Amino acid sequence: MGDYSDSDEETPEWCSCEECEDMQAPEENLCCHNHNCMLKNMNYYSVDCITSHPAFQMVVLDPFVLETAYYSYRTSKYRRGKLSTGELR
Ligand SMILES: [Zn+2]
Ligand SMILES: [Zn+2]
Fold first, then answer.
1. Do residues 39 and 50 touch, judged by C-beta distance below 8 A?
2. Residue 35 in contact with residue 41, Cβ under 8 Å?
3. What protein residues have CB closer than 5 angstroms to ion ligand 2?
4. Could you read off the pLDDT tens digit of each residue along the chain, which spans 89 residues?
5. Are 53 and 85 in contact (CB under 8 A)?
6. How far is the CA of 62 from the centre of ligand 1 (A)?
7. pLDDT for position 16
8. Cβ(39)–Cβ(48) under 8 Å?
9. pLDDT score, position 81
10. What is the pTM of this model?
11. 51 CA distance to ligand 2 centroid (A)?
C-alpha cells in the first residue's frame, strides 16, 4: 500500500544526510554534511552520506585498518615526506 517506514528512529534535526544518530556528547552531533572535505568526496561518488562512501565502508569493516588510517593521518600532518608502503610483514 505504499506505506513505507523502516523503523521508529527519527533523524536528528541537525542531520542532513538522514543517516546520523543522536550521540551522547553534543560535540559528536555532527552530520557528515558539515564537513566540506567529506561533502566533496560524497559528491564525487554520488552518495548522500559518508557512511555510504566505498572507502568508508572498507575502513569500518576492519577496526585495525581504521586505527592505521587514523595514525597515518596524524603522522602525515607532521611529516609530509614519502609514506613507506608495501612492507606490512
Ligand atoms: Zn547526517
Ligand atoms: Zn551522514
1. no
2. no
3. 17, 19, 32, 49
4. 555 555 566 889 999 999 888 888 888 888 989 888 888 888 998 999 988 888 877 766 677 776 777 778 777 765 555 555 555 56
5. no
6. 22
7. 93
8. no
9. 53
10. 0.52
11. 6
Q: Which amino acid is located at 22 in the chain? A: D
Decide if 19 contacts 49 (C-beta within 8 A): yes
The closest ligand to the CA of 14 turns out to be 1
Quote the cell numbers at residue 15.
542531520
Q: Are 51 and 20 in contact (CB under 8 A)?
A: no
The amino acid that residue 18 corresponds to is: E
Ligand nearest to the CA of 11: 1
For residue 14, the model assigns a pLDDT of 92
Instruction: Specify the long-range contacts of residues 39-42, CB closer than 8 Å, at least 24 apart.
Output: none
DSSP letter, residue 61: T
Cell 543517516 belongs to residue: 19
Query: C-alpha cell of 68?
Result: 592505521
